[in-house]
Amino acid sequence: EKGPYRHFMLKEIHEQPDAVSRVVGQFIDRGAGTLAVHTPLSFDFAALPRLTVSACGTAYLAGAVGKYWFERYARLPVDIDVASEFRYRQPPLEPNGLAMFISQSGETADTLAALPYCADNGQHIASVVNVEESTIARESGSVFPLRCGPEIGVASTKAFTTQLTTLACLSLVAGRARGVLSGADVEALIEALNRLPGALAEALRAEPDIAEIARRLTKARNALFLGRGSLFPIALEGALKLKEISYIHSEGYAAGELKHGPIALVDETIPVIVIAPSDELTEKTISNMQEVCARGGRIILITDAQGAETHGAMAAEIIVMPQVHPFIAPIVAAVAIQLLAYHTAVQLGADVDQPRNLAKSVTVE
Ligand code: F6R
Question: Do the record's keywords include Lipid metabolism (predicted)?
Fold first, then answer.
């Protein structure tokens, strides 16, 4: 069932343009260019005091990007934690808040265990899941299905980008309901979302270049990923993806944290992957990149054509992603870090679909 693809992971990476297109269709009436939510909501976005998100691993990182969107576009305060910490923390929850659980499988033990605590503490329950018959889905008042088809590769790819797309759409629904976004704001953001499937297809065309860059990454023992704003969780996801399938030790950092410790690691042996598409924060991230360069670090810059032209000279290698609205840039950048991890792992001879020590669904604590 892998078709022409060598691994399920690669097939699933290539399914992303269609998968995100289906998600956008669940929230946007393309003809009218307006929001049209297909899932009946069991709560009112306008009345929520807070959104509390729990999830694990890559699903947690999707939620971490979502926090930037909900706070910015809906002025909705968001707390997010990994479910294994949340479930034992007993955090105080404001009544009538929304608790959201993000899970591809809908069966992850820690995520599932966090749910009853929220239900018992006066929260509405919503979930973003791929498996619609799953336990988490059954226990939720509102279910936002990813419908990206079975994800066989242990490393999550299309579930991640469909989770992101779902959260992006929901942040606009929330922003509209809460009176934060004007009609014109929503129109521009909807247009950005409508462009997403095409942008991901375009991003995939960088694969040969990325495979070539991966050839050099195979020599590294350690790698550092940097990002700022909504690209910070993508840096964390880049590090997670690379370490779990290639076994190269990698860490993700908020670009601004560099000088608070990790810069001590930088020398000519460490590739530093800087995720900096053009947005209002690019200059800040680029100045962190300069600090890395000054210490001999080897930069792999993930950016767009404009970023490559302005800041490319400093980078040893550049991965050029399509020029998109900053709103959807984290989803586009996700494709670049997935392909980078995939090709590095394949060239190292690793079993990318079935990495050592990992299970697809973590149903024990
Ligand atoms: C990493 C990965 C894991 C899962 C995590 C949560 O590539 O796939 O980190 O994201 O185990 O799984 P779900 O989404 O099924 O709850």
Answer: no
Contact 196, 328 (CB under 8 A): yes
pLDDT score for 68: 98
Mean pLDDT of the chain: 96
**Would you please indicate which residues are annotated as catalytic (active-site) residues?**
360
**Considering Cα of 303, then 239, then 212, then 2, what sign does the dihedral take?**
negative
Residues 27 and 147: beta-carbon distance below 8 Å? no
Q: Which of 78, 30, 340, 301 has its CA nearest to residue 204?
A: 340
Do 67 and 60 meet the contact criterion of CB atoms below 8 Å apart?
no
70-84 per-position pLDDT tens digit? 999 999 999 999 999
Helix axes 196-204, 329-347, angle to 10 degrees: 30
CA 265 vs CA 106, 128, 178, 278, 296: distances in Å: 38, 37, 45, 27, 11
Residues with a CB atom less than 6 Å from ligand 1:
56-59, 103-105, 108, 111, 155-156, 244, 361-362
pLDDT digit string (tens) for 39-93?
A: 889 999 999 999 999 999 999 999 999 999 999 999 999 999 999 999 999 999 9
Q: How many angstroms is it from 103 CA to the middle of ligand 1?
A: 7
Q: Using an 8 Å Cβ cutoff, are 35 and 186 in contact?
A: yes
Tell me whether residue 325 is exposed, middle or buried, using C-beta atoms within 10 angstroms of its C-beta: 0 to 12, 13 to 18, 19 or more.
middle
CA of 64 to the centre of ligand 1 (A): 14
Query: CA nearest 128: which of 94, 153, 87, 98?
Result: 98
pTM, whole model, 2 decimals? 0.98
What is the DSSP secondary-structure string of 91-126?
----TT-EEEEEESSS--HHHHHHHHHHHHTT-EEE
Whole-number Å distance between alpha carbons of 356 and 116: 32
